[in-house]
Design goal:
- InterPro entries: Kinase-like_dom_sf, Leu-rich_rpt, Leu-rich_rpt_typical-subtyp, LRR_dom_sf, LRR_R13L4/SHOC2-like, Plant_LRR-RLKs, Prot_kinase_dom, Protein_kinase_ATP_BS.
- This is non-specific serine/threonine protein kinase.
- Its EC number is 2.7.11.1.
- It catalyses: L-threonyl-[protein] + ATP = O-phospho-L-threonyl-[protein] + ADP + H(+); L-seryl-[protein] + ATP = O-phospho-L-seryl-[protein] + ADP + H(+).
- It is found in: Cell membrane; Membrane.
- The chain is of the alpha/beta class.
- Among the domains are: 152 residues, Ribonuclease Inhibitor (Leucine-rich repeat, LRR (right-handed beta-alpha superhelix)), CATH 3.80.10; 100 residues, Phosphorylase Kinase, domain 1; 207 residues, Transferase(Phosphotransferase) domain 1 (Transferase(Phosphotransferase), domain 1, Orthogonal Bundle), CATH 1.10.510.
- Helices cover 25% and strands 16% of the residues.
- It is built from 16 helices and 29 strands.
- Strands 1-2-3-5-7-9-11-13-15-17-18-20 form a twelve-stranded mixed sheet, covered by helices on one side. A six-stranded antiparallel sheet has the order 22-26-27-25-24-23, sandwiched between helices.
- Strand 28 and strand 29 form a beta hairpin.
- Helix 3 packs across helix 5, helix 8 packs antiparallel against helix 11 and helix 8 crosses helix 15.
- The protein starts with a helix and ends with a helix.
- Bound molecules: 2-acetamido-2-deoxy-beta-D-glucopyranose (4 copies).
- The site of one 2-acetamido-2-deoxy-beta-D-glucopyranose has 4 residues, from helix 2.
Length: 717
C-alpha cells in the first residue's frame, strides 16, 4: 500500500514538473519574441509579426527559442544596442550585428548569453567600456568588436574566454595595458588590437599563444622592448608591431618565426642591430624596419630571403657597406628597397647607381616626388560619403597571368586578386565616392583590414616612360609618414587597371560632415579646433620637413578626411603630379574652385603660399560650417568692420562657453584670416601657423561677443 501511494505521488510530481516546464518554456518564447519586437529593429521589414522566427536574420531552434541573430549592412542606423534586451535571449548561439549603425554601450546583460559562440558587433558606433561580464561568455570562439568607439581598458576577465580563436578589438579607443591574462587564450589564431590607445609593455604571456597566425598590435602606444618569448609563436605568418613606442633591440628569437610572410616593426624606437637570424625567415615577403634607431650593418644573409618584395630600412642609423644583393637587385619590381632603389639621378637615393657605395645613410630626405601621391589620397575619397549612387566607369575585366606590372607592400599578402575579390571586380556596391581622378572603393582584405582603393581613370598605362615615373613617384609617396596624412599603402598597374591603395577613413570628408545637419553637431568646437591643428601639422610637415618641399595644390574640405575618432587627415598629396609627372609647378589644372589662391589666376605658378590660402579657406569653412564664399570678398572691403565673430560661427553649435575653447576658436579664425590674405607674401607659412599653435597668443581685448572680424584681421599674431 505504501508502495502504491508513493508511486502515485511520484507520477504526480513528474506530471506537474513537465507542465511547469512547458509553461515556462512558452513564456520564455513569448519573452524572446517580445524582446525582438520591442527593439523595433524588425518591425518595418518583417510585417509578419506573429512568427518572429521567420524574421530576417533570426534563427530559432525547434522549440522556437532564438539561437542566432545575424544582421549586417543596414542602410540606415537602427538605433542603440541596448534596445535589444539581451537577458531575454539566453539561448543565443551567435549574435552578429555588423555595420548596423548601432550606438550606445554594450550592456552588462551580455554576460547572460552564456551559450554564445560568436559575438560580432564590428563597424558600429558603440561607446563606453567593454563590460567585464564578457568574461562569462566562456563558449565564445569569435569576438569581433573592430571599428567602434569603445573606451576604457580591455577587461582582464577576457582571460576566461579560453575557447577564443579569433579576437579583434582594433580601431577603438581602448586604453591601459594589454592584460597579461590574454596569455591564457591558447586557442587564439588571430589577435588584432591595432589602432587603440593601449600603453605599457607587450606582455610576455603572449608567448603562450602558440597557435597564433596573425598578431597585430600596431598603432598603439605600447612601450618597453619586444619580449623574447615572441619567438615561441612559430605559427605566425603576420606580425605587425608598427607605430608604437617600442624600445630596446630586436630579439634574435624573431628568427624562430619561420612562417612569417610579413614583419613590420616600423615607427618605433627600436635600437641595436638587425639580428642575422632574420635571415631564417625564408618566407618573408615584407620586412619593414623603417623609422627606428637601428644601427650597425645590414646582415648580408638577408639575401637568402628569396621571396622578399619589400625591404624597407629607411630612417634608421645603419652604416657600413650596402650588401651586393641590394645593389644588384634594386631594379626588380619585386624587390623594393623603398626610397633607396631605382632612383637614378635623385640626390640622396644613390644606392642603385653607386654599386660600390661605402657608407649607407638611410636617413633620407623626402624628395619632391613625395608630394605627388599624397595629393591623390583624399581627392576622390572626400566625395565618397554621400555619393555612393554615382556610376563609376566600367572597365572590362581582363586577367592574364603575368601582366601584372607591380603590386604593393601593404601586408605582403595582398594580391591583385584580393582587391578584385573584395570589390567583386569593382562592383558599384563597394564604390564610396567618385572624384576627378577616379572612383574610390572600400575593400575588406582577407586579413580583415579595410582599405580604400582608388581606381584611376587613365589610359596611358601602356606608355613605358609614364609607367616608370609613376612607379618612382608612388614608391616615394608610400614613404610619407605623418599621423595626419592619409597613408598610401601601394598601387597596382595591371593591364587596363591602375589603382592606388590607401588607409580607409571611416567618417568620410570634412565637407560631407559639415553638410550633414546631424554630423555637423557631432563636430563640436573642440573637434573642429583639433582638425585645424591636424591640417596645420600635416601641411607644415610637407612644406618644411620635406626636401624639396611638397605642395599639395588642391586643399579643400573634400580632401580633409576624418577617421573614426574625428581626427583630421590630409589626403591626396601628390595626386596632381603623380598623374602628370612631367608637369612642373607651372600648371593649368589644379585646385578646386573656391579654394584657389587669387594670384594663381595670374601667375600660374604654384607655391606653398597657394596651399596656405586654401588651408585658410578650409579653416574658415570648418568654423562657420559652410564655404565662406562672399564672406571672403566682404573681408577685403571695409564692410568687415561690422561683421561680428559670433554671427559667422556655425549656428548649429551654441557659442563656446568654456573660456579655453572660446580662445581656441578665436585663434583659429585669426590664423585663418591671416592665411587668406590676398598678398601671398603677407600670409604666414604653415610652419609659422604650426608653431603658433604651440604657443600662447594674446586674447583680443574685447569680450567674445564683441569681437569683430576686422579686429582679428588686424591683430598681431
Ligand atoms: C529584460 O528581460 C529580463 C528577462 O526577461 C527582464 O527581467 C527585464 O525586466 C528586461 N529588461 C527590460 C529593460 O525590459
Ligand atoms: C611605458 O609607459 C608608461 C606610461 O604609459 C610608463 O609608466 C612606463 O614607465 C613606460 N615604460 C617604459 C619601459 O618606457
Ligand atoms: C637601446 O635603448 C635602451 C633604452 O631604451 C638602452 O638601455 C640601450 O643601451 C640601447 N642600446 C643601444 C645599443 O643603443
Ligand atoms: C637593372 O637595370 C639595368 C639597366 O636598366 C640592367 O642592365 C640590369 O640587367 C638590371 N638588373 C636586374 C637584376 O634586373
Amino acid at each position: 500500500m505504501e508502495c502504491v501511494v508513493s508511486s502515485v505521488v511520484a507520477v504526480l510530481v513528474v506530471v506537474h514538473t513537465v507542465s511547469m516546464t512547458h509553461a515556462a518554456d512558452h513564456s520564455q518564447v513569448v519573452a524572446e519574441a517580445d524582446a525582438l519586437r520591442n527593439s523595433g529593429w524588425w518591425i518595418w521589414r518583417d510585417p509578419d509579426t506573429s512568427n518572429h522566427c521567420s524574421w530576417s536574420g533570426i534563427t530559432c531552434n525547434e522549440a522556437k527559442h532564438v539561437t542566432g541573430i545575424r544582421l549586417r549592412n543596414y542602410q540606415e542606423p537602427i538605433g542603440e544596442v541596448s534596445e535589444l534586451n539581451l537577458s531575454s535571449l539566453p539561448s543565443l548561439n551567435f549574435l552578429i550585428l555588423s555595420r548596423m549603425g548601432l550606438s550606445g554601450s554594450i550592456s552588462d546583460q551580455i554576460g547572460s548569453l552564456t551559450k554564445l559562440t560568436i559575438l560580432d558587433l564590428s563597424h558600429n558606433q558603440l561607446t563606453d567600456p567593454i563590460p567585464h561580464q564578457i568574461g562569462s561568455l566562456t563558449k565564445l570562439t569569435h569576438l569581433d568588436l573592430f571599428d567602434n568607439q569603445l573606451t576604457g581598458p580591455i577587461p582582464h576577465q577576457i582571460g576566461s574566454l579560453t575557447k577564443l580563436i579569433h579576437l579583434d578589438l582594433s580601431s577603438n579607443q581602448l586604453t591601459d595595458s594589454l592584460p597579461h591574462q590574454i596569455g591564457t587564450l591558447t586557442e587564439l589564431t588571430y589577435l588584432h588590437v591595432s589602432s587603440n590607445e593601449l600603453t605599457g609593455p607587450i606582455p610576455s604571456s603572449l608567448g603562450r599563444l602558440t597557435k597564433l597566425t596573425h598578431l597585430d598590435l600596431s598603432y598603439n602606444q605600447l612601450n618597453g622592448s619586444i619580449p623574447h618569448q615572441i619567438g615561441t609563436l612559430i605559427e605566425l605568418t603576420y606580425l605587425d608591431l608598427s607605430w608604437g613606442e617600442l624600445t630596446g633591440a630586436m630579439p634574435s628569437s624573431l628568427g624562430c618565426l619561420t612562417k612569417l610572410t610579413s614583419l613590420d616593426l616600423s615607427m618605433n624606437q627600436i635600437n641595436g642591430s638587425i639580428p642575422p637570424e632574420i635571415g631564417n625567415l625564408k618566407d618573408l615577403v615584407t620586412l619593414d624596419l623603417s623609422n627606428n634607431l637601428i644601427s650597425g650593418e645590414i646582415p648580408s644573409n638577408l639575401k637568402i630571403l628569396k621571396r622578399l618584395w619589400l625591404l624597407d630600412l629607411s630612417y634608421n642609423r645603419l652604416s657600413g657597406n650596402v650588401p651586393s644583393f641590394i645593389t644588384n637587385n634594386c631594379n626588380q619590381t619585386t624587390f623594393d628597397l623603398s626610397q633607396n632603389d631605382d632612383l637614378e639621378g635623385h640626390p640622396g637615393y644613390s644606392i642603385c647607381t653607386g654599386g660600390h657605395a661605402t657608407s649607407l645613410t638611410l636617413i633620407i630626405s623626402l624628395p619632391l616626388t613625395l608630394f605627388f601621391v599624397a595629393l591623390i589620397l583624399g581627392f576622390a575619397f572626400g566625395l565618397w560619403w554621400k555619393k555612393r549612387q554615382l556610376q563609376p566607369e566600367s572597365m572590362p575585366v581582363k586577367k592574364r597571368r603575368g601582366d601584372l606590372f607591380s603590386i604593393w607592400d601593404y601586408d605582403g599578402r595582398i594580391a591583385f586578386e584580393d582587391i578584385i575579390l573584395a570589390t567583386e571586380d569593382f562592383d558599384i556596391r563597394y564604390c564610396i565616392g567618385v572624384g576627378g581622378y577616379g572612383s574610390v572603393y572600400r575593400a575588406q582584405l582577407p586579413s580583415g583590414k579595410v582599405v580604400a582603393v582608388k581606381k584611376l581613370h587613365r589610359s596611358e598605362i601602356d606608355e613605358p616612360t609614364y609607367l616608370r615615373s609613376f612607379k618612382n613617384e608612388v614608391r616615394m609617396l608610400e614613404q610619407i609618414r605623418h599621423r595626419n596624412i592619409v597613408k598610401l599603402h601601394g598601387y597596382c598597374l595591371h593591364n587596363r587597371y591602375m589603382f592606388l591603395i590607401y588607409m580607409y577613413m571611416e567618417r568620410g570628408s570634412l565637407y560631407s560632415m559639415l553638410s550633414d545637419e546631424v554630423e555637423a553637431v557631432e563636430l563640436d568646437w573642440v573637434k573642429r579646433v583639433n582638425i585645424f591643428k591636424n591640417m596645420a601639422h600635416a601641411l607644415s610637415y610637407m612644406h618644411h620637413d620635406c626636401i624639396p618641399p611638397i605642395i599639395h595644390r588642391d586643399i579643400s574640405s573634400n580632401n580633409i578626411l576624418l577617421d573614426s575618432k574625428l581626427e583630421g587627415f590630409v589626403s591626396d598629396f601628390g595626386t596632381a603630379r603623380l598623374l602628370d609627372p612631367d608637369s612642373s609647378n607651372q600648371t593649368l589644372v589644379v585646385g578646386t574652385y573656391g579654394y584657389i589662391a587669387p594670384e594663381l589666376a595670374c601667375t600660374m605658378v604654384v607655391t606653398e603660399k597657394c596651399d596656405v590660402y586654401s588651408f585658410g579657406v578650409v579653416a574658415l569653412e570648418t568654423m562657420i560650417g559652410k564655404h565662406p564664399g562672399e564672406l571672403i570678398t566682404s573681408l577685403s572691403s571695409s564692410l568687415c568692420q561690422d561683421i561680428m565673430l559670433r554671427d559667422v560661427l556655425d549656428s548649429r553649435l551654441s557659442l563656446p562657453e568654456d573660456l579655453q575653447v572660446a580662445k581656441d576658436v578665436v585663434f583659429v579664425i585669426l590664423l585663418a584670416l591671416k592665411c587668406i590674405h590676398s598678398n601671398p607674401q603677407s600670409r604666414p607659412t604653415m610652419q609659422q601657423v604650426s608653431y603658433k599653435l604651440l604657443s600662447n597668443i594674446p586674447f583680443p581685448k574685447s569680450p567674445f561677443y564683441a569681437i569683430s572680424l576686422h579686429e582679428l584681421k588686424n591683430q598681431e599674431m
